[in-house]
Amino acid sequence: MIIKPLHTLDYVRKSFNSATSRADRSRIGQFLTPAAIAHFMSSMFECGPKEVRILDPGAGAGVLFATSVETLISQENRPLSIKVVAYETDSTILPYLEETLKRCHSLCISNGIEFHGIIKCEDFVSAAIAETRESLFAVPIARFTHVILNPPYKKINSQTAMSRMLYSSDIEVANLYAVFVWLSMLLLEPCGQMVAITPRSFCNGPYFKKFRAAFLQMMSLQRIHIFESRKKAFGDDNVLQENIIYHALRGLQKPGSVTISASEGLDFDKARTLSVPYDQVVHPADRDMFIHLSINDANVGPAERMRCLTTSLNKLSLGVSTGRVVDFRAREHLRQSPEQETVPLIYPCHFLNGFINWPGESGKKPNAIASSSETSDLLVEAGFYVLTKRFSSKEQQRRVMAAIYDPTRIDAPLVGFENHLNYFHKQGKGLAADLAKGLAVYLNSTIVDQYFRLFSGHTQVNATDLRKMPYPTHEQLLRLSRYVKETMPDQESIDDIMEKECLNCEQ
Ligand SMILES: C[S@@+](CC[C@H](N)C(=O)[O-])C[C@H]1O[C@@H](n2cnc3c(N)ncnc32)[C@H](O)[C@@H]1O
User: Fold this and answer.
1) Beta pairing class for 144-149 and 51-57
2) In the structure, which protein residues have their CB atom closer than 6 angstroms to any atom of ligand 1?
3) Is the pLDDT of residue 241 over 70?
């Protein structure tokens, strides 16, 4: 795990809010994002390029770029360098913003990542218009790979200089928040990612039609999160706007489906999630290009079917934890190949046909870890464990991928599981062999993967998500185990087996 010196972000928000008046903050549209929302927003970013450039327009105290930095450096493919550009016009918040930038700097440096942060105390709208215009003639600007924003909410008076400036750039919208989103997408590089929290008013209605057209044309909408309670998101600030969060990529190609999730307030772990076909979200024949945000329709299939499974991990007396070896923290104990006084160290690259294939020959990851008093807390007793990968890429077919650690194939008294894995255990020790085999069949089934996608919007598979899933009974798991011989059955067979042994509860 990465040290998180950014955990005081909510404290910064509270102390700024108590040092300023709500009326003043309201006048400049300054409702700062609670840290829980900021974390949730930045968790939507997928692994990106090695050289990250983050834009935070209207950065306030910097919570959004700070959580983004934190998220990006804890991803599997960590960036080599991060640059942050934060625009902010309110001088009273600048000391807080500078402090957050400094903390990001230390966090990156302590994780071996180059960091460069710039605060621009200027109007983002004029700066962005100048930048996008100039780039038509001058050297192309280095565009951003990520933009994260909670823009100011303010009606635009049509008689102002701002309105005229926007009009001359062909940007016609009724509210400043949409201007911020519009200019931000212009500043993204192809495939660059945007996560924004804004009022949902742009999703329909005539005032935002030009904005919707530009947004839906330039961006590929991946995910939308809805707050079901008007009051709960920014509760303590008394903001009554209906806000949504969305994740979109710069690019013309539209996705097959959009993930729509909904939570009451900040209870994101209880969010309901559906994958909705893109043309149900934006109807192809709709000239107004409304964005439909319903979450109560089709796609309940996998959830319905999983009702046949009535047991929980707890009832099975099993647990699931995240691998304890954080490799960059234990660097001096790692060995490329097994030696005297070392034990196996297991990474996702050791997965092969449903089993752990160790030692690996790719040379990409160390195969062993020294076994000593310094590492004893990182290791577990050898035994049958079921491992799942914590990270999958968007291209990978499955989110949930499981493999069995079989101690009869690997001669070692202890083993280390690296932090990119979760491991299923019985009170910290191995499982009975047949239970482990049955569990791996279950986790590798298509229905589990579909169910997981329905309820978790991101590509990461957390131990908490695995704990919340329903499981087959002990007897069912034993029946599933009978099909595992030297290798895992193929996908089609696994799905047939699941159908026969676990999903026929109507009969
Ligand atoms: C809704 S707050 C959000 C702040 C921060 N991003 C967060 O999520 O906590 C919007 C911020 O934009 C700033 N702002 C307003 N107009 C601006 C402008 N034209 N250019 C740059 N910043 C602006 C405000 O001072 C405020 O801090």
Assistant:
1) parallel
2) 28-33, 58-60, 63-64, 87-90, 93, 123-125, 150, 152
3) no
